[in-house]
Structure formats: structure tokens, C-alpha cells
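Appendix C reproduces, verbatim, an entry submitted by the partner laboratory led by Prof. M.T., so that reviewers can inspect both the input and the predicted structure.
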Amino acid sequence: MEVEVNDYSTNEKIFYPEEGLDTSDVVEGHGSFGSLAYFSPWGNVVMYYSEGGPYSGLYLLGKATEGAENIQMLRNSAYSIIRTVLNHWCLQWKQDVWAISWITLPLLS
């Protein structure tokens, strides 16, 4: 899947998935460094590179297992999201060798 990553606020990067996610059986959470979350009111996925607060409609999808320090360096550009194995996802910039990896909850699987 190819996504366009954009800056938002002072602590996160966002992108819009191709389809909305079903949040009917998921508990709301709050964003922290390295977390991946879904903000249902706007339908975007959030990648936190510093602490975020609790927001109504924010659902935690996963936590970075590798490369969380790279989130802040993402530019407004296209990235590939790859499912490597069950519940493991990787975001990779085509022109770079580094990647960010998450282990996710079943909501994204």
C-alpha cells in the first residue's frame, strides 16, 4: 500500500488509509512516542514522534518495535507500507534504507 505522509501539529505525522477502520470493538487510547493510532473523526492514521494526549476517537493500533526515532524525519512524500508477517507492519521510504516497524493490534490486521 502506498500512502502520502504529512506533518500535523508538533508531535505527529499522519496519512489516510485507503479505507476507514472498524473501531466498534476497540478501546480509545492516547498517543505516546512511537505509537501508531487511528483518529476516527478524520479517518487518518497518526504516527507519534513525541508524547500526545488522549483524544476522543483516537484508537491505538500499535507500538514501534524499530525506527521510532525516524518518524520525525518523514517528509511530505509517498511511502510504502508493507505487511511483513502477521501483525507486523513496516513503513519504508523508497529513496532511503531505513524503515519504521510496528507490531499492531488486530484492528489493522
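The two ends are 13 Å apart (CA to CA). Additional entries are available on request from the coordinating office.
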